[in-house]
Write a structure and sequence with these properties.
Layout (H helix, E strand, L loop, with lengths): L7 H12 L19 E6 L5 H17 L2 E6 L6 H14 L3 E4 L8 H9 L3 E5 L11 E4 L2 H16 L6 E5 L5 H14 L8 E6 L4 H14 L5 E4 L2 H13 L7 E6 L2 H9 L4 E4 L2 H18 L5 E4 L3 E3 L12 H7 L3
Parallel strand pairs: 1-2, 1-3, 3-4, 4-5, 5-11, 6-7, 6-8, 8-9, 9-10
Antiparallel strand pairs: 10-12
Helix pairs in contact: 1-3, 2-10, 5-6, 7-8, 9-11
InterPro entries: Peripla_BP_I (IPR028082), SBP_2_dom (IPR025997)
GO molecular function: carbohydrate binding
Keywords: Signal
Length: 334
Amino acid sequence: MSRSTRAAGALSACAIVATIALAGCGGGGDNAGQADAIKVGLITKTETNPFFVKMKIGAEAAAKADGAELMTAAGKFDGDNASQITAIENMVAAGVKGILITPSDSKAIVPAVQKARSAGVLVIALDSPTEPQEATDALFATDNFKAGELIGQYAKATMAGKPAKIATLDLAPGIAVGQLRHDGFLKGFGIQEGDPSVVCSQDTGGDQSKGQTAMENCLQKAPDINLVYTINEPAALGAYTALKAKGREKDVLIVSVDGGCVGTKAVQSGQIAATSQQYPLKMAEQGVKAVVDYGKSGTKVSGYTDTGVTLITDKPAGGVEAEDTEFGLQNCWG
């Protein structure tokens, strides 16, 4: 990514962030030299995950359009709470009006968030809420329950009354995003936790290799599985690999959530039947605008803003609204 020249204070902040191996500072474009430009901070979990790369692109474009100066930082790895805390402190010291953050640890980040808010900084969570959610001024994110519900409804309609033998390849215990998607899927399919149609449940951490292992374990436990729910598309592709090794890839329905470009192409190729697509670019764009509005008027955004979710499939099911993979590829990330 190109780096624009900064005023001395902003350069100092970037240098501090760089020493702790965060993602650095960027954005601002032609407005970077304006002393009165509103400063906006963006802190993501990592700088390598395509989801967060797309989020950063959206924030950069929105900052440039609004004449704002963007500072960015990221953890060294997913779960790096210490680096996110340091980034918050540096951004507050640099005079940002607001910080957009995808919290790596929804609980541990709260004291740093509260300290920033006490200093008059607007803090908005993107994608993932803090715990409690009210620790930030606002949350801009996918309705993960709805994302799960959509693929549950799709799976139910596609099964067309055929008895289901379901495997759920989940995220990990205690993570809100994973639980919401799981619960939404169950509701969309019309069942409750503990229903006997769910014959196997495994955690994958959203990882492709772990998804493959989880699917292999489930097939050992219940060889007649015919429907697989996955927390995300990497887990779905892992499941597909395991099913293909058993010659089952064509008679098992796989549904997922995320809508990244790799996952959307997997829907297009038929490896995944459908996915619920979310929009990180929109989260960032709306977040930057909220901070700029706060800087100009003092008006704070509050509560939850749903940034949208769309079911993507090339095999539509009756009664379930969806878009095809052409739409999905035009709006995917990664």
